[in-house]
From TrEMBL:
PPR repeats: 50-84, 151-185, 186-220
Coiled-coil boundaries: none
Pfam family, one: DYW_deaminase
Keywords: Repeat
GO MF entry, a single one: zinc ion binding
Ranges of residues in domain DYW: 356-426
Residues spanning the signal sequence: none
GO terms under biological process: RNA modification
SUPFAM superfamilies: TPR-like (SSF48452)
Annotated protein name in UniProt: Pentatricopeptide repeat-containing protein
Amino acid sequence: MGKGRSVHGLVVKFGLEEELDLLITLTSMYAKCGQVHTARSIFDRVFSPELILWNSMISGYAKNGHAGEAVELFKKMISTKVNPDSITLRSAILAFSQLGSLVAASWMWEFVTISELKNDIFVKTAIIDMYAKCGSVVLAREVFDSIPHRDVVVWSAMIMGYGLYGQGKEAIDLFHEMIRSRIRPNDVTFVGLLSACKHAGLVEEGRGYFNSMRNHGIEPRHQHYACIVDLLSRAGHLEEAYGFIREMPMAPEVTVIHGDVELGKYAADRVFALEPWNAGHYVQLSNIYASAGLWKEVASVRVLMKDKKVIKSMGLSSIEIDGKIQSFYAGDKSHPRSKEIFEMMEELERKLKKAGFLPHTDSILHDLGSEEKEVLLCNHSERIAMAYGLICTSPGTTLRITKNLRACVNCHSATKLISKELEYVLILFTGWCFILISVDDVSKLRSRMRSTIEIQRAKKNKLDPLDGSKSVVALPCQELSGIQHPQGIAQSVNHVLDVRNAISRGRTE
């Protein structure tokens, strides 16, 4: 970045600030280096940007986590009659996938289907990834099935989608179908496959596929080792997991360790040397120490983070109701219906205690008393989002909650019981995987929903009822299906952008 700024200084010194080619290059450089605000200031100086400049800026926003700004700029571009190319669409799709809105994702797909790039395999692959990350593996599979000639990237995207949901059997079946189609898997294919095995608890299958990678000419990489160590650790095979860590040809991530202090220290010593600015490593090591009650060590990690100016991301949970995304942070009381939300949370706590639920206070990684820990657990952002969804909908509804950080054990367990007690389907996406918590049995719920008017609504919108009930498919059918012009999409997504940008404002949960 320093050399880039020096070059920029020379551009200014020699009076070349109005040279379009240089402005495009500078915008691209700053965007790729994560300096999106500087890139935008240069972009805004161009009166009539060419497509390559639009692409640089939209891509820069999307790849640096500024989904709202990326979609806003995409909207502005199509309103100025600039025709997007494949790069534009893929960058915009990436931004929509970060929004986590199934309705907004459907608008994006609607735009693609009426564009000249509706059959572009790269765009369709991005759509598969977008739908999976927005909570509908069913719609992702529909797009996958619509592609006649699939390459390894398409197959891998769909397997990765199943991996997000922990649908191990579906991922394995698709992998074998891919092999039968004589498509050679790549390293990304195995990341998706191992991730699916990990979340589905398929230990033997995960071992087998990991060991088979070299048979396909693929050398295991960091992500593959992380998946297999995580799989073994979740299953309680800590010694075997430790063996994998010692055999890793690269430094392990602290995130693969499950509550073993010595393993955590071992991993941290190796990984901090390579990635001293990655906040996730410090947080995981701090959590390991806290779980063991080593509060002095926790404090030392926090001091180290402060000294190195490493900042932890704010925990933020979002839920889509009536076509609008509402986002909450821990203890958030800023919503106009905050009083109702917290009354619902108190009611949920009463129901949980009556059902015999015992809070997992060990998941609170602070040196506090039991009662204080229980209060903190009740105020996690996903619990607030859930309560908001409950006061806005009725039983039988699917509530989809997205969180940018992992959910704690307590919230995961409480959500299962809440789903059962209140007859809701709750889908929690934690940025790592989807957790589907159904009413009794998913197949029974699906059967029941097929006898209601909701299934007719879902069919009209081409949505599976389990993947999008009225809390997700909230707009009138004609509004979603009647979009005939790109501006229709642009005007419709305005209301989902602002709150998502709060993720980067620096609060911590």
